[in-house]
Design goal:
CATH superfamily of the largest domain: HUPs
Helix content: 25-40%
Number of domains: 3
CATH class of the largest domain: Alpha Beta
Radius of gyration: 23 Å
CATH architecture of the largest domain: 3-Layer(aba) Sandwich
Length: about 600
């Protein structure tokens, strides 16, 4: 795990941009406390801050092959590095135990044909000095982030978009459409394009080639749901169980141990159970002030207090269990911290839990297992049971509430976004003439837009504290099996994640196996703090916020007595204010 950055310049020696690269690396210092390195490769200058997980002594970056042709900087983990090392051993003389050298050897030996062989989470840049060309690659689901831009003929990339602000000539400008999507559809936002104008994200499962004649971006992998035609649960369930256990084992095959984030839900309990079979596990559970008295009937996604379930799961599995208490007294300060950490803008209040969990884990661990990608790839969301919601993306947008848009915006803005999301599924070949087709279309959209946002948040908040979030449900072999599952096995008899539940019988406690989906909790008692902080944000950043939203309606929301109708919206208004203030963002 690292923070990587680099600059490619075909007109001038890249070393002339050395000061800029150093400034980029300073913005990424939290991602790599174990050392900083950089290398001048002629027309490319590359750097990395390292969080060592495999071969601390030998895995320093950037790493160059002995003859000097290839240099790589790499963020993430190659989980099948031992298997690949055996395949490459006859053609490559390894000098280290690191998975970075395995990646370097694979690219030097197989070129782009190495990509389908990589099982892990990764974002990397490889420079070919002989042919003066570079290759940027991002993993299948987008577990590891990678942003890029072109300015004054220079191509620059970095693990986080905010590092690329060093490449801009002036204060950053807000990307109008990206911020609009953030306010209207936060769960789909911040992944197709950065919130800063002029920057780009390399999409999950994509690669970017850069050479003197230009830049080319193409898809190298896709979550292809049209393969999902197998309907025999007795044949698939054992395979799924085995793939789960192997995926967790691969994610733990490093020199550092990992904690488990345990909510007491199905996904995190599966991870704790599989991890505990290898070595004693330590589990962490968030606990907000007054959590046992929250009114969960009001929540769309959080259905119950997690703590009793997490305690039960931990006791049944024999894990050490650590509660992470969160005081409401720090809530206002935490809101600013989230906005500073997450350059894609915090999308939902649950990011507060991610922040506190990562901070607690960082005291004793460098990595944590998280259950992200399970719901998205195994038909796990409760709203998929609602035929009206999967009919068209507009129903999903309405389900989570529409913000009061400013008068200058097109009144059909929400409908236009919904139509755009529908096209994404249609262009992938998914149709809505059958329930299975509608489930595939909804899942395609969730995997392409919702999941990358979740993964981005997990990476950002973990790495802010020097902790690597590992995602066993993103294991390549497990994904290859998941796409073969017919939707009627994913959802059956009104139960989401039906096949996954069948696969883990006797692995997890029965009460957990049958527990319905409940999202990571948020502080349901912080509504008055949200109102107060939203008022301050509206006073301080009215011109900015008013570019997209109706200020009068927002002020009425802040002043309305009783229960708050859209706490998530006020959370995003506050985040927008802090984000713009911290980064000095200008209006578009």
């Amino acid at each position: 795990m690292c923070g990587i950055a680099g600059i490619v310049d075909f007109e001038r020696p890249a070393s002339l941009a050395g000061d800029r690269l150093q400034a980029m690396l300073r913005r990424l210092q939290h991602r790599g406390p174990d050392g900083t390195g950089w290398r001048d490769c002629g027309h490319a200058i590359l750097g990395a801050n390292r969080l060592a997980q495999v071969d601390r002594a030998g895995g320093a970056q950037p790493m160059t092959c002995p003859e000097g042709r290839w240099t790589v900087v790499f963020n993430g983990e190659i989980h099948n590095h031992r298997e690949l090392r055996e395949r490459l051993d006859g053609t490559w003389k390894f000098r280290t135990r690191s998975d970075t050298e395995v990646l370097l050897a694979a690219i030097a030996t197989w070129g782009e044909a190495a990509l389908p062989r990589l099982n892990g989470m990764f974002a990397f840049f490889a420079w070919d000095a002989e042919n003066k060309r570079g290759l940027c690659v991002r993993d299948r689901l987008g577990v590891k982030p990678l942003a890029w831009c072109v300015r004054n003929g220079r191509f620059s990339f970095a693990s986080e978009a905010k590092a690329l602000l060093e490449c801009l000539p002036d204060r950053p400008v807000a990307n109008f459409d990206a911020v609009l999507e953030y306010l209207v559809a936060p769960f789909f936002s911040g992944v197709a394009r950065p919130m800063f104008e002029g920057l780009e994200y390399l999409a999950p499962g994509h690669l970017l080639r850069i050479a003197e004649d230009g830049i080319e971006v193409r898809e190298w992998w896709r979550y292809e749901l049209r393969q999902g035609v197998e309907t025999d649960p007795e044949r698939l369930a054992p395979k799924l169980r085995n793939a789960l256990e192997q995926g967790v084992a691969r994610s733990l095959d490093t020199d550092t141990s990992a904690a488990v984030l345990l909510s007491g839900g199905l996904d995190s309990t599966i991870l704790a159970a599989c991890a505990g079979r290898r070595s004693p596990a330590v589990a962490y559970t968030i606990c907000f002030e007054g959590q046992d008295h929250f009114d969960y009937a009001r929540s769309l996604m959080v259905k119950a207090d997690d703590t009793p379930y997490a305690v039960e799961a931990s006791a049944a599995l024999g894990t050490e269990h650590r509660l992470v208490p969160v005081s409401r007294a720090d809530y206002a300060r935490d809101l600013r911290t989230l906005a500073v950490q997450n350059d894609a803008l915090p999308a939902w209040e649950q990011e507060l839990a991610q922040h506190h969990l990562a901070r607690a884990v960082s005291r004793d661990f460098r990595a944590m297992l998280v259950g992200d990608a399970a719901d998205e790839t195994h038909f796990g969301y409760g709203f998929l049971l609602d035929d009206s919601v999967i009919e068209h993306p507009r129903a999903l947008l309405r389900r989570f509430g529409s913000p009061p848009l400013g008068r200058a915006l097109d009144p059909d803005t929400v409908e236009a976004l919904a139509a755009h999301y529908a096209r994404l599924s249609a262009e992938a070949g998914h149709e809505g003439s059958s329930r299975a087709g509608r489930l595939r279309a909804a899942t395609h959209l969730i995997v392409r837009r919702w999941l990358p946002r979740l993964l981005h948040n997990g990476d950002i908040h973990g790495m802010a504290h020097g902790v690597e979030a590992r995602v066993p449900f993103a294991d390549a072999e497990l994904l290859g099996l998941a796409v073969r599952v017919h939707p009627e096995l994913g959802i059956r008899d009104g139960i989401e994640k039906w096949l996954l539940r069948e696969a883990v019988r006797k692995l997890v406690p029965e009460s957990i196996r049958t527990r319905r989906k409940s999202a990571l909790p948020r502080d349901e008692g912080a509504e008055e703090v949200l109102r107060q902080e939203a008022r301050r944000a509206l006073d301080a950043s009215a011109p900015l916020i008013g570019t997209w939203l109706d200020l009068r309606a927002l002020r009425s929301m802040c002043d309305a007595p009783g229960r708050l109708g859209q706490p998530g919206l006020l959370f995003r208004v506050i985040a927008l204010h802090h984000w713009a203030e911290y980064h000095g963002v200008r209006l578009p």
